[in-house]
Amino acid sequence: MINKEKKVEAFERALDVMDRLRAECPWNHAQTIDTLRPMTVEEVYELSDAVMKKDDTALEKELGDVFLHVIFYAKIAEEEGRYDIADVMNKLCEKMIYRHPHVFSTTKVADAVQVSENWEMLKAKEKGGNKRILSGIPDAMPPILKAFSMQDKARGVGFDWEEKRQVWDKVKEEQQELQAEMEAMDAAVTGEDRAAAADRAEEELGDFMFATINAARLYGLNPDTALNRACDKFRRRFTYLEENTLRKGRDLHDMTLKEMDEIWDEGKAKGL
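^ thats the sequence. predicted structure below, dont judge the formating
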C-alpha cells in the first residue's frame, strides 16, 4: 500500500506540474492538440528507440515524456470542458475490464490466442457489431506496422493462408511482377512510357513488400524489428568504413567501390 501511495503521489505531482505549466509558461499555454501531435509522434519514436536499445535510463526518461503528452492532451480538453484525465483513466479501466472477462469475470480461455480472439469480438460488440475489421487501424500508422496489423486482423476472421509455406508462391509472384515493371522502366523510350512504368513498378513494389511482411507474420517474425536490425547493421558497417577511411587520411568520394568493399568486409568479419 505504501508503494501504491507513492505512485499516486507522483501522479498528482505530475498533474500539478502540468497545471502550473499551462497557467504560467507562455509556450505551454500556447500549445493545442494539433501542435502537440507531431511532437507526440517524435516522443513515441524516441521511446521505441530506447526499448530496442534496452536502455533503462533512456526508457525511464522517454516513458515520462510520453506520459507528459497524455496529461497535456487531457489538460487541454479539461480547459475546453470536454473531458479530463480522470475520464481518460476511467475509460481505460472500463475497457480493460470489459475486454478481459477471463480476469474480471467467469470466462475461461485456453491460451493467449483465444484471449486475442475474444478481444476482437468484444471490441466489435462495443460498436454494436457494425465495426469494420480494418477500421480501427490508423491511416497515420507507419506502413510496415499498418500492413502487419491489417494481415493479423484479417487472420482473426480466418482470412489467411491455409499453410504458411503457401505464402512463398505469392512472394515469388510479386517479385517477378516487380522486376518486370522495373525492367519496363529501363526499356521505356519516351518519358511518358517511363512514368507509366514507374507508376506500375511502385504499385508492384508495394505488393511485394506487403507479401514479404505477410511471410514474416506467418513465421512469427516482426518485420519492423527485422528492418530496424538491418538498418542498425548497415549503420555500424558504414560507420566502420567511414572511420577507417578518415583514419587513413582519405575521402570516401575518392575511393573505388572495390576499396570500400574490402573495408566493409573487414567490419563484417569483426561481427559489426
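The two ends are 48 Å apart (CA to CA).
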